[in-house]
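FORM 12-B: Structure-to-Sequence Request
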């Protein structure tokens, strides 16, 4: 897993750092729209020649030839496809969704029974039932690098990497309490208004985004990829009925690294959905739980 993680990070860093030279070799992005004149020259033998040139403003008569000229507006995005840089930096991607837990734990395993210091009747997946609407996932990527791998009139393919944060919040339905020294889970004697486990990962994605033209102004967006994350913090927060707050930072037997697959689907400028599934378990102590997150991609590539 460590070798895979290192290789993944190396590929993504190479994509990030290669933009500096690439951007200096390409012309700056043009303004919003460009009027392009299409010049068609038809010779007496029936041969036609077309040329598009934004500098052509007048067309005169040439003896023995029929000349037609038409103009069209080319959008900013179409112009970028024709002449824009293949690398682009500085884009932001933000996801907002909810979490569920896919629990593959063998609750009869000795390591699991040692970690779960709860009555035997509670040693099952229902111990970690979530308040679904309050178990939130947020992904923030303030720095993204996009490489335009394919550019045609009706199809585009982008390869994207970057650096950001993957934030998990799990709100428990039962009074679950994580302890440290030794690390374990117990059932508290009081109920809580808020009882959550939170994890923050420094995250690096490698994504493939496809855009297929639906009509003149609409693009179907879809794609997938993989992310590698390093846990930079984890904590629990409990708020009792009286309003007393207890916050505890610890590893809690959580894994330092995670690997997720991710996918997205939508129509550009209208809506975009995302989903992620964590391939690796959250824990290193026998619990085998995998976060699944889905929601809206507020801004994207």
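FORM 12-B RESPONSE
SEQUENCE OUT:
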């Amino acid at each position: 897993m460590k070798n895979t993680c290192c290789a993944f990070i190396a590929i993504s860093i190479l994509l990030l750092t290669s933009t500096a030279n690439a951007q200096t070799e390409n012309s700056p992005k043009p303004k919003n729209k460009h009027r392009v004149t299409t010049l068609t020259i038809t010779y007496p033998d029936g041969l036609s020649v077309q040329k598009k040139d934004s500098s052509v403003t007048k067309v005169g008569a040439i003896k023995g030839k029929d000349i037609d000229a038409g103009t069209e507006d080319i959008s900013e995005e179409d112009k970028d496809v024709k002449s824009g840089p293949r690398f682009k930096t500085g884009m932001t991607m933000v996801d907002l969704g909810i979490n569920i837990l896919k629990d593959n734990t063998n609750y009869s395993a000795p390591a699991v029974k040692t970690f779960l210091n709860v009555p035997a009747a509670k040693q099952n997946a229902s111990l970690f039932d979530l308040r679904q609407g309050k178990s939130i996932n947020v992904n923030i990527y303030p720095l993204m690098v996009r490489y335009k791998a394919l550019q045609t009139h009706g199809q585009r393919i982008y390869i994207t990497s970057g650096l950001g944060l993957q934030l998990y919040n799990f709100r428990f339905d039962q009074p679950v309490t994580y302890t440290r020294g030794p690390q374990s889970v117990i059932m508290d004697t009081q109920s809580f208004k808020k009882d959550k486990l939170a994890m923050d990962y420094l995250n690096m994605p490698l994504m493939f985004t496809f855009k297929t033209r639906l009509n003149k102004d609409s693009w179907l967006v879809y794609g997938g990829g993989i992310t590698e994350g390093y846990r930079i913090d984890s904590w629990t927060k409990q708020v009792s009925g009286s309003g007393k707050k207890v916050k505890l930072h610890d590893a809690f037997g959580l894994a330092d690294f995670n690997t997720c697959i991710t996918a997205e689907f939508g129509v550009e400028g209208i809506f975009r959905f995302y989903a992620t599934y964590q391939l690796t378990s959250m824990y290193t102590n026998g619990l085998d739980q995998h976060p699944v997150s889905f929601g809206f991609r507020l801004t994207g590539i």
